[in-house]
Amino acid sequence: MQYDVYGVGNALVDIQAQVSDDTLERLDFPKGIMTLVDERTQLRVLNELDGTLLTRCAGGSAANTILGVADFGGKAAYAGKTGDEPFGEFFLEDMRKIGVSIEVAPTDGQTGTCVVLITDDAQRTMLTHLGVSSTLTKSDIDEEAIKKSQWVYVEGYLFTSPTQKAAALKAIQLAKKNGVKVAFTVSDPFLINDFRDEFWDLIESPVDLLFCNLEEARALTGHEDPVECAASLHRHARQVAMTLGADGSLLMHNGSTIPIEGVQVEAVDTTGAGDMYAAGILYGITNGLSWRDSGHLASHAAARIVSQFGARLENPFTKAEIAKILGS
Asked: Quick one: CA dihedral 198, 203, 205, 210, positive or negative?
C-alpha cells in the first residue's frame, strides 16, 4: 500500500486569533460553534482583527486529520479544492511540505478560509467561508490513489454542498469497490438535523469506523448516557470512536467496549482536538497498533493539541515519545 489514509474534505486556510469575549460579542457570532459565512462577512471579520496577532496554516477538519497522520510518520493523500491564488498556493505548499500528496487541480476563485476566534476559556468560535472548496466534484476523486490506500476518511461537512457530497459518496463507493475501509466523521451536531437519514444510511452500510463526540452521539441516538450512546451506535457501525472531552473516549470494536482515559492538561484552545484524535486512531490502526494502543495515542494527541494554540501540532510526537506512551 502506498497510503495509510486517503482523506476527502474541505481545503481551508485556518486563520487563528486570540480574542476577548468583548470582541466576540461585538462581532455578534454565537460562541463555541462553527458558522458558515460569505466572503464579505469574512473580510469584515478580518478587518476587525487588524492589528491582532494572526497565525495561519492549512486546515479544514479532514485536512487536520490527514496532516496529523503525516506528522505521526504515516503516509497520506488528500482530495480538496483550492483556488489559483496566494491562499491556495499556501495551502498546497503547507500540505506537501509535510509529505501529504494532494493532486487536485486548483481552480479560479478564492480558497476557503476558517477564522478561528479563541477566547480565554479555550472555546473556539469558527467562521468558515468555503470559497472554491465547495466546488470539489466526483471527477476530483482519484481511484488509483484510493486503490493504494488502507483507509478512506470522509468528513461530514462535505454534505452541505451537493457537489462535495457527490464527491464524498464517490470516494466511499470506490473504496468499497476496491476493498478499502471507510472512516466517517459526523463533524458537527448541526449536520445531524439536516442529514440524519443519510448519515444513518452510511453508518449502517459502507462505513467501517464512525468518529463522533458525545454531543453528536446523543443527537444520533437519542440516548444521554455515554455507554448507551456508544452501544447503540455499535449495533449499526462496525467500529465506533466516541470522544468524551476531558473524560477520554470510548472505542467500540468487535462487540467490545474499550474505555480510553483522558490526559489531563491545561486547555488553552480546543480547536482540532477531535481531528487530532482521529489522526491518532487512523495512524495507529494502519501502522500495526492495537485498537487500545491507538486510542491511548489518540488521547495523548488530542491533549497536546488543546494545550497549544491551533489545530496543528507545534511539536509532533517522536518515535521515542510514542513508545513511552504505549509502554514499550
From this structure: positive
Hey, what domains does the chain have and what are their CATH numbers? Answer: 3-11+60-85+131-325 (3.40.1190.20)
231-200-242 Cα angle (round to 5)? 40
- Only one residue has cell 450512546, namely 229
Cα 139 to the chain's mean position, in Å? 22
pLDDT tens-place string over residues 223-282: 999 999 999 999 999 999 999 988 999 999 988 899 999 898 888 777 788 999 999 999
Half-sphere exposure of 140 (CA within 13 A, CB side): 31
Each residue of 121-152: pLDDT tens digit? Answer: 888 898 999 999 999 999 999 999 999 999 99
> What b-and-e string marks burial along 56-70, b requiring 16 or more CB atoms within 10 Å of the CB?
bbbbbbbbbbbbbbb
Residues near 231 by Cβ (< 8 Å), separated by ≥ 6? 252, 257
Yes or no: say if 37 and 131 are a contact pair by the CB < 8 Å rule: no
Fill in the DSSP letter of residue 142.
-
Question: Do 130 and 114 touch, CB atoms closer than 8 A?
Answer: no
Using CA atoms of 295, 297, 301, 302 in order, give the dihedral in degrees to the nearest 10. 20
Dihedral sign (CA 138, 144, 145, 146): positive
- Euclidean distance between CA atoms 297 and 318, whole angstroms: 12
Distance CA 242, CA 274 (A): 9
In whole angstroms, give the CA distance from residue 277 to residue 66.
11
For 293-305, letters b (16+ CB in 10 Å) and e give: bbbbbbbbbbbbb
DSSP one-letter string for 93-120:
HHHHTTT-EE-PPPBSSPEEEEEEEE-T
Cα 294-300-303 angle, rounded to 5 deg: 140
How many angstroms from the chain centroid is the CA of residue 175? Answer: 19
